[in-house]
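Hey, I'm writing a tutorial for new members on how sequence and structure tokens pair up, and I'd like a real worked example in the thread rather than a made-up one. If someone can provide the structure for the chain below, I'll link this post from the tutorial.
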Amino acid sequence: MKTILALIDFSDVSSKILEHALAFAEAFGSDIVLIHVVPPEPLVVDFAPPAVPPELFEERQKDLSAMRDSLAARGVNATAQVFGGPLLETILTQIDGIDPDAVIMGSHGHGALYHLIVGSITEGVIKRATHPVLVVPSVPTLDPVRTADIKKAQPEISLNAIGGIPVPL
């Protein structure tokens, strides 16, 4: 495996994508190509093609370059490129142009209704890419753990109650 293409979207799953890409690169001596696609912002009033905001493009390039530098610090040869355009088509074009041995991307775990209305970039890549695709699932978000002091809430009941009979403290 010579080249791994990691699709970075700067969501919560991006760090996991980077971890998997690093693990493969270290195991197989692969190079990593990091790419991010900035989708164009639609213009409501104009009929010109949607534009990619230059400040967002520059910010993403800086962030992606920082990821590349962190990989280089681990001894992995990596490049970072930001592209502008429609997400799925731009990703597929880059996959074909880079010709990686594997593509690593994330999934956000949206529900069926979301996919019906909006669609899924991950699903589109899996269906249309001609290269192996590894999908890293999103990290579930959990509510913070809350603690309660049972003695303060119900001081007359012990946690050691037997047979459902409260035992006074």
